[in-house]
Amino acid sequence: MRCEEKIEKMLEIIERVANREYEKDNWKGILDMVAELFEADGAAIGEVRGDYLYYTKASSTIADSGIFNPEEFRVPVWWSAFEEASDRGYILIEDYQRYERAVESWKKIGLRSKLVAILGDKEPFGSLSVGRVMSSKPFTEEDGKILRSLAFIFSFIVKEELEKKRLLEKAIIDHLTGLYNRFYLEEAGAREIARAKRYGFPISLIMFDLDNFKQVNDTYGHQVGDRVLVKFASIVSSNVRSTDMPVRYGGEEFVVLLPHTYPEEAVKVAERIREEFEKFLFRFEGEVMRLTVSAGISFCNSGECSLGELIQMADKAMYEAKEKGKNRIEVFSYQT
Q1: Beta strands at 329-331 and 293-301: parallel, antiparallel or unpaired
Q2: For 275, left (φ over 0), alpha (ψ -120 to 50), or beta?
Q3: What does the pLDDT read at residue 336?
């Protein structure tokens, strides 16, 4: 691409960013243009979360590939191209296959060369990257300077997006367990019920209540109680689908909303969670202890009931499980 064409393409990218066109498709179209500008096979924006950089926005060739998973293709913040780029604003990697800090998942897809520019100046919070798989042609220093200029412009927009996202997460995520909170359940759950009514699919709800949790708190303290809650939340998260809605409802009560699910299937999910929690060995002040959980399940077909009714029915079934000796699951029936 000639110099004049590069300038024209860069100005078009900047104009589209200024017009907030990235909101239409999570940056995919703009990153397609970035890849074209650098004659690359793909482009991506990475976001720092803890010790890793996750590529949360990508061009079509990456996002629509069918093999891309942000978790699998994450990059360590330390001892990586990101760390090296932080020192000068960008880095050129001519031969990624021989690069000593290469990430194995990126090597496996045949990445040959890579150009990384940092988002954020004094406190880097992400990156803008382009890569070549089909061509062995390396990127140039001129490419690096152009990408760095784009990254400087993108950084203001991406940082604003991330701050909005974090504020939203604070509003809908339980800070202790990382599950959704009750507010989110009430908002998103009502929408899910409306979808069930519109499209005619079944929906189930599980309500869990940790058995004898007050005794744990009173005996060992709230810090130990928090550890129990976090562990249970982790077990719940690992046993539900991405389409399900795991929620810390309040105190030691948890809810899972399961769209497209009949009660028989919900029982299997609840039983897996109950069994795994019962088997886990907690160690408190030198003591080894097993804890249990009771659960109630409610069901609604084609959105025939409200979220409040689903919760109320599951709550009644859960208390029946408590009355029958705890550490068990009950399904609501109108005779309950």
Answers
A1: parallel
A2: alpha
A3: 43
Q: Positive or negative, the Cα torsion across 331, 332, 333, 336?
A: positive
34, two tokens:
């970035």
Task: For the chain, give every residue range classified as CATH 3.30.450.40.
Answer: 3-171
Question: What is the signed CA dihedral for 246, 248, 253, 257, rounded to 10 degrees?
Answer: -30
* Average pLDDT across the chain, whole number: 93
Segment 212-255, tens digit of pLDDT? 999 999 999 999 999 999 999 999 999 999 899 999 999 999 99
Query: What is the distance between the alpha carbons of residues 222 and 224, in angstroms, rounded to a whole number?
Result: 5
Q: Where in the chain is the domain with CATH 3.30.70.270?
A: 182-331
Model pLDDT for residues 133-179, shown as the tens digit of each residue = 999 899 999 999 999 999 999 999 999 988 888 888 788 999 999 99
The CA distance from 329 to 208, in Å, is 9
Spatial contact of 239 and 269, defined as CB atoms under 8 Å apart: yes
Residue 8 in tokens: 């024209």
Q: Which candidate in 252, 276, 278, 323 is catalytic?
A: 252
Catalytic annotation present for 252: yes
Q: Got the DSSP string for 273-292? A: HHHHHHH--EEETTEEE---
Q: For residues 152 and 139, give the distance between their C-alpha atoms in angstroms, rounded to a whole number.
A: 19
Phi-psi region of 212 (alpha: psi -120 to 50; beta: other; left: phi over 0): left
Per the listing, tokens 């990408």 go with: 147
What is the 8-class DSSP label of residue 266?
H
pTM exceeds cut of 0.70: no
Q: CATH topology for 182-331?
A: Alpha-Beta Plaits (3.30.70)
Which CATH topology does 3-171 take? Beta-Lactamase (3.30.450)
Contacts of residue 45, defined as CB under 8 A and 6 or more positions apart, other chains included, come to 27, 31, 55, 56, 57, 58, 119, 126, 127, 128, 129, 154, 158
